[in-house]
């Protein structure tokens, strides 16, 4: 009460009377005014920070959602190697470029702007490494684009010799866009992950990257469930249908495989033992995704088990630096989380086993062992040793193609399993190809047609890629592309080593200085829900778009399989995105997301050292994302908490959002952002005009042509084929389809009037156009040659036989080790009246090629070739074939 009275007395007191009282009163008033101004300024800064935080979270959500939608699209429509060459990935690549422009202008551009303020806090070597990685990636994509452009100058209609290889511009451009889209994805994601908008608060960077890793796991679980459905339901049903009616099943899948042919044997073997493929074309490709996801789950499951059963697991761990975290810094997750992760691992493991991929299983065993060693050896020294061991193992697998040239000796290769020896044959053929064309190789998309010429005589498969990502790069862009890739791997490994051990060793290890956070996705503040839901929503939108377009285009995914696969994938997504973050801690030393991504990337590259898929979007997009995580720069690494920030760093990240460079520096940065966006936008426009629109229009006309032909309207079908040829002046399918339509019209006239013989000018023009567009591809030329021989069987035209001889002679020069082509040439020579000695030599050559390598599928008894003699009307329905073995035995007598 006394105090209250004193206050009231002071309030009732009048103004100061003396000069000293007046001065004191004035000073107190100034202090109060300054306090009010300071409070107002602080409030303004707080409001601005709130708005900046809201914009940052919104941009982060948009970026994660767009990336998730694109990745889910790639999982559903992976577009394997041959489909990429035919333009199956153009839509995905175009969407990636357009979204990248938006990211650059609204998200990545912001990262560049703020990054200028942080230059003083970053090491110069780190900045140089960042620009070096981005520069190498852009140069690699640019060189592949240049190699594609060079295919325009490759002669396509030379009947003399084979001085050049490649020449299919359409396939080259279609595949080159995958390389370009990959460079844009990688550089854009790296820059975004390095910017403060991705790590503006504690644990947010790790939470974003953990969400992307979860998308890889969820996509793999979706495809794994699909694969298990195929193994136990779809494939057994198809096998039963095939046994009941083989011809109908072969017609449905579009395979021409006469009874007793090697094509039918290969189809039956894959149907019985090929394994599941899910949405991919090959089981080995699916195994690559499953292997990477399996490694991610293992790397996350181990620390979860360590937190769930701390006393039991602590006995298995060696060292104390990473295992002595204070108990209050981590939470103990319930056993349900561990059980859920174990179930996810079981689904992935069963599907991986069913793929029968030795490369996939080997990569999981080796990298999984490294992950287990990294978890058990929980000291700083152990961390360094595991990193060095992992990099050394990766270097061995990268350098394996050198053994195909005898650099490490060749005696040990014969002791390897048969499937591995086949890989060395592929790699040696690739070296021959690159030595023939060192600057550009065969060009992107042209490897398969060039492989015919450079493969070893004992090789029996005609492969679409060399089953090693370094060799595939060499084949697509020659030695410059291969050197750029090896340089990129070396610089990336150096950046990872430096980020893990170089700069972090000088950072103080003080767990008490680390701020606490309840979870990586909840530590972002009041707007964390945006980030929390962005990846699931984006993945859902991407999957929904696939189903909507599937309904529109009558190309739905396997509905029965997805009735099971989608609920399982949703359960895995709920566990990863919503349950797991609640049970992890931002300072938990086991949650090093960059390190997890590095192990998964190691598994992917190890698998691609024996298998194809380097340019398959469904696999490549995962590799690009993991590589961006591993090589992204950031201040959030420490030995005490891999993705935790010190208070000073957190303050710097928060303050940097409020600073935008002004003056000359800001002007240069803004123009750099706008310029890069313009470059990507120009690439998107170029892709639309050069590739996407021509391929799309040509396919639309071809689809309508097929409808008209099924209705019996050959004239209308031919006109539509002509339109398809005009829409895409480099496509082969419309040309061969038009030639087939003209041939069918002639067969109808011949059936009505057998005197209708002689090649019409229209047929000759269509034949010349088809040969021109077939270029240096012996498989396409062989298809044209069979059509011409069929005409000879029906009409007996000498001109048709002469054309067939020229076509098969060129096929033999482009594919000198193909036994069926050699046998067909022998029959043509015999029909033309060549000397018996010449015919006998050709027959002996065919038999010799069939016996080389001792491969069953190369035997002449399984090769069916066309009879080369006039037959007449009985051959109108379909060409007459015979066993190549019987034909060659008759020629040798």
Question: What topology emerges from the helices and strands here?
Answer:
Elements: H1 2-12, H2 19-76, H3 81-85, H4 90-115, H5 124-149, H6 169-194, H7 204-244, H8 246-253, H9 262-273, H10 283-308, H11 310-314, H12 335-355, H13 358-376, H14 380-398, H15 418-436, H16 447-454, H17 469-502, H18 528-553, H19 559-583, H20 593-607, H21 617-631, H22 647-656, H23 663-710, H24 714-727, H25 733-752, H26 761-774, H27 778-795, H28 798-814, H29 819-832, H30 836-851, E1 864-866, E2 881-883, H31 884-892
Antiparallel strand pairs: 1-2
Helix pairs in contact: 2-4, 2-7, 2-18, 2-21, 4-6, 4-23, 5-6, 5-17, 6-21, 7-8, 7-10, 7-12, 7-18, 7-19, 7-21, 10-12, 10-13, 10-20, 12-19, 13-14, 13-20, 14-17, 14-20, 15-17, 20-21, 23-24, 24-25, 25-26, 25-27, 26-27, 27-28, 28-29, 29-30, 29-31, 30-31
Provide structural commentary.
The chain is mainly α and 893 residues long. Helices cover 70% and strands 1% of the residues. Strands 1-2 form a two-stranded antiparallel sheet. Helix 29 packs across helix 31. It is globular, with a radius of gyration of 33 Å. The chain starts with a helix and ends with a helix. The N terminus is likely disordered. The chain crosses the membrane at residues 58-76, 88-108, 129-149, 169-189, 210-229, 280-305, 335-353, 359-377, 389-408, 479-497, 530-549, 561-580, 616-637, 669-690. Keywords: Membrane, Transmembrane, Transmembrane helix.
